[in-house]
Structure formats: C-alpha cells, structure tokens
TrEMBL record:
It comes from the Eukaryota. Its EC number is 3.4.19.12. GO terms for biological process: protein deubiquitination; ubiquitin-dependent protein catabolic process. The record marks 83 as: Transition state stabilizer. This is Ubiquitin carboxyl-terminal hydrolase. CDD domains: Peptidase_C12_UCH37_BAP1. It comes from Westerdykella ornata. The keyword Hydrolase applies. GO terms for molecular function: cysteine-type deubiquitinase activity. It catalyses: Thiol-dependent hydrolysis of ester, thioester, amide, peptide and isopeptide bonds formed by the C-terminal Gly of ubiquitin (a 76-residue protein attached to proteins as an intracellular targeting signal).
Length: 312
C-alpha cells in the first residue's frame, strides 16, 4: 500500500461505503441535483453537505474570506483540521461533518478514538494526525479508481491543471460553518439551528457558485443524511425502501469496478479478436482494420464538431 493518498470521486456510493468501512452507522450520502431547500428537507435528518468545486490553483488564503467571517475561537472548540496533504480533502470534508456530529451520529470506536486523541491539538497538528492515520488513509485509498498509467500520489498539480476541492458545511452550536482545510479557521455564516440548515446553506452555496462564469457547471453537492432505508421503514414506504436497496446494490457493483484494472483483460480480448480475424484470411483482416479506423475517425470528427458547438 502506498504511503500517499489517492484521488477519490465525488460520488454518493463511494462516500457512503467509505464511512461504513470507517465504522460509521446509519448514515449515507445522497447527491443533490438542484439547489433548493426543499430538496434537502425531503431527505429527513441532515447532518451537513459536501461541496465539490474547481479550485483556482493560484488562489491563496486571505485574511478575510470572500463570504462569512473567520471564527478562530471555533477552530479550538470544534473539529477543524488543516489540510496538509494533497488528495485527502474528500475524506477530510466528510470527517469535518461527522466528527462534529458525534452524539447525533454513531461514528464508531475508531473515529471516536481519533477525535479524542486529536481534540487538544491545533488545526495544523490535527491535520497532520489525520494525514498520518493508517486506518483512514487505507480506507480512503480502497475507493480510488484503479489506473495502470499514472501514480496520482507522485504528481503535483500545476496552474494549468483543473484541480477540484471538497469542503463541508454543517450546523454546529447554533452556527452555520464552512469547514475548509485550506483556510486558516472555520468560516461562520451566521446563526443556524439544525432545522434552519436547508434554508441557510443554500444561499451560501448559490453565492459561491455565482463567483464563477455562467459556463462553469462542474460542481457537485452531496448531502450527509440519516440512512434513507431507516426512514422508509419507519413511515412504511415500501417503494422508497426498494429504491434505496437497488441503489445500494448499484453502489456495491460500481465500487467493485473501481478497484479493478481492466487493461490486461482488454489486451487479452483484443488478442483473441485479432487471432479470429487473421484466421478468416488477410483480406478479411485488412477490411476489419480499415472499417475500425474509419469508425474511429468518424467518432473523432463528431467530437470535434460537438466541441465547436459547445464553444459557440
């Protein structure tokens, strides 16, 4: 196992099974399609949201946030960790929600021990402790997509790259906090009770998205909520329960695929196909190659036309 942290996807199935492997019980993530308070409320008990956005690689933290105010005292009273390593921000964001909901949520013995151990640390040391946790790193890396071509732990981003960053929003002690490990402290967005959270967080997210050009659509929002299967059982909604169980089955299948490298399989399959075509004779083989090349050129041309249309 590499000592580094690999990139994980902003995916409800990845995050849900990641926290289950860390020992969290009766919690899941659900993707939000629209920025509407009612969409959040329909999910029942909400613990927080995880927001993924394109991060300007040249941007540096400032003394004053563009929205809200830094709460340096809260950095010592709640779980807030500085991000000290690349690629860990997804797991750090979900822990920023869950470790501040201990009591509302059963976070399990491992995370509870980690929180207690790091409780008296300042944010930078807390971040180092998180980054050096073998358990959290290994669980995180187990959900990284397999790639035979690059080692994502060895490559630093440049200003020409698209870099994406995860941050968390949650209600703690009657305040709406933005928890971003690249900032010097939690950012307070004012008073916010747990029932108020959907109405308070959506305008903050809308203001953040408004900073980007209208053409930028690469955002993702995941809600951290009580397991929706439990809610469906409590209200006797069999249809919703079956839908959630199907979703879990799909997540398990997708997570299994992420862990496998299919390049070897594709290579062996190609050998079999080529052998079969050669057995049909040289003319049949050459015709097959020409047809394949023509289809490839046609697809490439279609992509160029589509890209031109999008740019217009």
């Amino acid at each position: 196992m590499s000592g580094g942290w690999n990139t994980i996807e902003s995916d409800a199935g990845v995050f849900t099974y990641l926290i289950e492997k860390l020992g969290v019980k009766d919690v899941q993530f659900d993707e939000l399609i629209t920025l509407e308070p009612d969409e959040l409320r329909r999910l029942g008990d909400i613990y927080g949201v995880i927001f993924l956005f394109k991060y300007p690689t040249g941007e540096r933290p400032s003394e004053t946030p563009r929205d809200g105010t830094f709460d340096y005292e809260a950095a010592n009273d709640i779980f807030f960790a500085a991000q000290t390593i690349q690629n860990a921000c997804g797991t750090q964001a979900l822990l920023s929600v869950l470790l501040n909901k201990d009591g509302e949520v059963d976070i399990g013995n491992e995370l509870r021990d980690f929180k207690a151990f790091s409780a008296e640390f300042p944010p930078d040391l807390r971040g180092e402790t998180l980054s050096n946790s073998d358990l959290i790193r290994e669980v995180h890396n187990s959900f990284a997509r397999s790639s035979p071509f690059i080692d994502e732990t060895q490559r630093a981003a440049t200003e020409d790259d698209d870099v994406y960053h995860f941050i968390a929003y949650t209600s703690i002690n009657g305040k709406l906090y933005e928890l971003d490990g690249l900032q010097p402290a939690p950012i307070s967005h004012g008073d916010c009770t747990v029932p108020d959270f959907p109405d308070k967080v959506i305008p903050v997210l809308q203001r953040r998205i408004a900073r980007y050009p209208p053409s930028e659509i690469r955002f993702n929002l995941l809600a951290c909520v009580r397991d929706l299967r439990i809610r469906a059982r409590e209200i006797g909604d069999q249809e919703a329960l079956e839908a959630e169980e199907r979703k879990r089955t799909e997540w398990l299948w997708e997570n299994a695929l992420r862990r496998h490298n299919f390049v070897g399989f594709v290579g062996e399959l190609l050998k079999v196909v080529v052998k079969d075509k050669l057995a049909q004779g040289e003319d049949a083989y050459n015709k097959w190659v020409e047809e394949s090349n023509a289809k490839t050129r046609k697809r490439a041309e279609a992509r160029r036309h589509q890209a031109g249309a999008d740019d217009g």
